[in-house]
Amino acid sequence: MSELKGAAPPGLRSEAAGPAAPRERPRVSGKLLRAAGIAMVAAALAVYPLVITNGLATTIAVDGVIFISAAAAWNIFSGYSGYISLGHAVFFGSGAYTVAIGARDWHLTGDAVFALLPLAAVVGAVIAVPCGLVALRVRRHTFVVITIALFFIFQLMAFNLSFTAGSIGIIAPILNWAPATYNDPFYYIALAIAAGTTALAWLIRGSRFGLQLRAIRDDEDRARGLGVRAMRVKLSAFVISAFITALVGGLWFYFIGEALPQFAFDPIFDLSVALMAFLGGLGTVAGPVLGALIIEPAQQYLTTTITNDYLSEILLGALFLVVILLLPRGVIPTGSELISKWTARRENRR
Amino acid sequence: MTAILRAEQVSKAFGGVQALGGCSVDVEEGSVTALIGPNGSGKTTLFNVITGYERLDAGEVYVGAKKITNAPPQRVFALGVGRTFQLTRIFPRLTVMENMLVATQHTGRRVRNPLARAGGPADRHRAMELLEFTGIERHAGALAETLSYGQRKLLELAYVLVADPAVVLLDEPAGGVNPSLIQHIAARIRELNAAGKTFLIVEHNMDFVMDLCGHIAVLDYGTVVATGPPAIIREDPRVLDAYLGIAEEDLAEEDDDAAAH
Question: What is the pTM of this model?
Answer without folding.
Answer: 0.86
